[in-house]
Design goal:
The complex is a heterodimer of chains A (about 450) and B (about 325). Chain A is mainly alpha-helical and about 450 residues long. Chain A is built from 18 helices and 4 strands. In chain A, helix 11 packs parallel to helix 14, helix 11 runs antiparallel to helix 15 and helix 14 runs parallel beside helix 18. The chains are: A mainly alpha (about 450), B alpha/beta (about 325).
């Protein structure tokens, strides 16, 4: 049986590689489980364990003296500080508070200003001091925000108190005003029976001014103090009706990262393993063309990635993630993510000298993907020059595209789609060049 | 080498690959005829594998000319590659595929149609692996892996085979089977270029290229190599008693005897130019001295000895020429 060198032979060689890659992966179930279920379980546990509202900070309030301490406890400031602050006690000694903070008994100290009225009388702001020992920048930002919100709430309450007091004080003029009104009414009545029209007109004008004064006073007294200090509120409406839970939001990103990592790792190990085994030497002597080897590998690994994508998509739907745009568009996006990731993997494989080097590069690609693709942080939180790194990773396009397809239910932005297609093509060409270099002998 | 089968499948002239520090292959001139087994024999690192790699197009030479099946190996057309079988030095198999799947993959590399079951069965029988084909390489012995490699090399019925140390690391019985297979292939018209470290395997080749330090020292048939190594044919004479030193000197002074060597009690090996004439002369010489000659027969020295003898002889000639 002689070998064939026509189109049929090319197809047989290509499918030979496809079959070989499929068998190689399926014969390594542990690798498949490690690469797919491992990260999936980690992210699942993270999603289930993630608390959307942070744990409240255990807080000790420090006030100037014992009288203030009793007053503060009576005032029940917990509501004023909000749900993020768990007011565990009130004390008067700052040093004692610092010891509690250093001993880990509390997370925050809020030191109230001493004799704040005297400070305000001097025309200065009374300052609350918040002390903490946090090192995490996210937590520090959170404390900063919570402290400002708490002080805003205190300011609002103080202002409401002031308005309420002012309203009470205006009630003190109600009685003299009523006397004035009575006298004025009597004066108008007596002048109406006389012959002094000028005096009557003056008395009537006086009466009208009293009406205005009573009206103004009534409005001031009738308004709720809370409305005066915070007249506006806000309601938020989400047009796409997608669940706001973090688990749902991170699902598409997780899918893209998992599929990218899986395909990239398989591809990255593929060429380098053949080189280490010495198979490229056999390929160079055979009639194999670089294209046949590469297309076969694309087909083999692509089929595995497609199956994994289908399984993960099913799991996502179990967790309530639904594709709002067309399934065809979703499939196109994932197919492009797989193609681009395979291309990147083959390029990594071409650059690696050993399989451990290829694994290291794959892990670096995963780390870069977590931080720079919009998976954890929105892309606009990164400085513009860093976007170059972001758009060098297929997952960046994939995550953006899936957010459109899954959450917004709209067609993928043309730029994102073009980026993904371009990326897959450029990496595919680079991979072809590298594979060809591997399997075709080079003249001197 | 005489050309008995038409166009020569392999022809080189001044072929050189210099890795520096004396490593590589230098000025390789060789022509190989179709249907022959040509063995490259030499110590480890003498350039055998580099030669095979240049002939197969795995690496490009630095200088010189090389034509294999009428083409430069680095520019082989796919059609030409399909006529070549290459078995590398180490058993290269995908560890996750069974031996049968590895063989199937090799078949697909050559674009063989999927109805290849009969061909695979023939080859599996040819290499005696019928019971082991569903094993993974790690479950197979070294010999079984080598046999699968040989089957993979033969799967597409190549006309020209390059076998780089095909018998390395396998037992003598299996080695003998391999050489029997190679002979069958050569008789079927295949050309086989084979390297080996086992000098004794030279006897199985039609021609042997002796290599040392990246150069071919000589190319000849196994018998001619023996002749070259000892400066003539070796005949072993068995007498009824030990010869005295005077008798040994007398034997060596015979014009038909180039040299002699005492081997054991009453046994002397003599290098001669004309074996038949020498037998008669030595028989007469023994009769004159009342010594009974019980046996005289041609001595085929083991190729290990031939090789050592040849290397020292050729190196001596080389240094004398310098």
């Amino acid at each position: 049986m002689k070998s064939d060198q026509g189109v049929r032979a090319r197809i047989i060689r290509t499918l030979g590689f496809c079959r070989k890659e499929l068998l190689s992966v399926l014969r390594q179930p542990r690798l498949l489980v490690t690469l797919v279920l491992g990260p999936f379980l980690i992210l699942l546990i993270f999603g289930l364990g993630y608390r959307e509202s942070p744990h409240p900070f255990r807080t000790l309030l420090i006030v100037g003296d014992e009288e203030a301490r009793v007053a503060a406890e009576r005032a029940d400031l917990s509501e004023a500080f909000g749900a993020s602050i768990d007011l565990v006690g009130t004390a008067t000694d700052v040093d004692e508070g610092m010891r509690s903070l250093e001993g880990g008994e509390v997370d925050l100290l809020i030191i109230a200003p001493e004799d704040s009225m005297a400070t305000l009388d001097k025309g200065e702001k009374a300052v609350f001091e918040v002390v903490h020992g946090e090192v995490d920048p996210v937590v520090r930002t959170s404390i900063d925000l919570i402290a400002r919100l708490a002080v805003d709430e205190i300011n609002r309450r103080v202002l409401a108190e002031v308005v309420g007091t002012a309203q009470q004080e205006t009630q003190e003029v109600d009685e003299p005003l009523a006397d004035l009104r009575e006298g004025s009414d009597r004066l108008v009545a007596s002048l109406e029976h006389g012959d002094d029209p000028e005096s009557l007109a003056e008395a009537q004008a006086l009466n009208e001014r009293l009406d205005e004064l009573e009206g103004s006073l009534g409005r001031v007294q009738g308004v709720e103090p809370q409305l005066v200090v915070s007249p506006f509120d806000v309601t938020i409406t989400q047009v796409n009706e997608v669940s706001r839970s973090a688990g749902v939001f991170y699902s598409p990103g997780t899918l893209v990262l998992l599929v990218q990592h899986l395909t990239l790792t398989f591809a990255a190990l593929s060429l380098v393993r053949e080189r280490q085994l010495g198979l490229t030497e056999v390929f160079r002597v055979s009639p194999l063309a670089g294209t046949e080897s590469l297309v076969g590998k694309y087909l083999g690994f692509g089929a595995i990635a497609a199956i994994v994508t289908a399984v993960l998509t099913l799991l996502m739907s179990v967790f309530g993630v639904e594709v709002r745009a067309s399934v065809a568009m979703y499939s196109v996006v994932m197919a492009l993510v797989i193609l681009a990731s395979l291309g990147l993997g083959f390029v990594i494989s071409g650059l690696s000298r050993t399989d451990s080097q290829a694994v290291q590069y794959s892990m670096i690609a995963l780390l870069v993907s977590i931080f720079f693709t919009g998976f954890v942080l929105p892309l606009d939180r990164l400085a513009e020059p860093v976007h170059v790194v972001s758009y060098m990773i297929p997952a960046t396009y994939g995550i953006q595209a899936l957010h459109d397809v899954i959450f917004r239910g709209v067609a993928v932005e043309l730029g994102v789609l073009a980026g993904l297609v371009g990326y897959a093509l450029v990496l595919g060409a680079a991979a072809w060049w590298m594979v060809r270099r591997e399997v075709v002998a080079r003249p001197a | 080498m005489p050309n008995a089968h038409g166009a020569r499948p392999v022809s080189t002239s001044g072929l050189t690959k210099d890795y520096g520090d004396g490593a590589g292959v230098f000025d390789l001139d060789i022509e190989i005829d179709a249907g022959t087994i040509v063995g490259f024999i030499g110590p480890s690192g003498c350039g055998k594998t580099t030669t095979i790699r240049m002939l197969t197009g795995v690496i490009a030479p630095d200088s010189g000319e090389v034509e294999v099946l009428g083409e430069r190996p680095v520019a082989f057309r796919p059609r030409t590659r399909a006529r070549i079988g290459y078995m590398p030095q180490h058993a290269i198999l995908y560890p996750e595929l069974t031996l049968r799947e590895n063989l199937n993959f090799a078949a697909s590399l050559y674009g063989m149609p999927y109805r290849r079951r009969r061909r695979i069965k023939t080859l599996v029988d040819f290499v005696d692996l019928a019971g082991a084909m569903n094993r993974l390489p790690e479950e197979a012995s070294g010999g079984e892996r080598r046999r699968v490699m040989l089957a993979s090399t033969l799967i597409h019925s190549p006309d020209l085979l390059f076998l780089d140390e095909p018998t390395a690391g396998i037992d003598p019985v299996l080695r003998r089977k391999f050489w029997d297979r190679f002979r069958e292939l050569a008789e079927a018209g295949k050309t086989i270029v084979v390297t080996t470290q086992y000098v004794g395997e030279a006897a199985y080749c039609d021609y042997v290229a002796v290599m040392a330090a990246g150069r071919i020292l000589t190319v000849d048939t196994p018998d001619e190599l023996r002749h070259k190594a000892y400066g003539g044919d070796v005949i072993e004479f068995r007498f009824d008693r030990n010869l005295s030193s005077d008798e040994m000197a007398s034997l060596e002074s015979l014009p038909e005897v180039a040299s002699e060597e005492w081997v054991g009690p009453g046994v002397v090996r003599v290098v001669v130019a004309d074996p038949e004439r020498a037998r008669t002369v030595v028989a007469d010489w023994a009769s004159e001295r009342d010594i009974e000659l019980s046996k005289s027969e041609a001595y085929l020295a083991p190729f290990d000895d031939v090789f050592v003898e040849l290397i020292s002889r050729l190196e001596a000639v080389g240094s004398h020429e310098e």
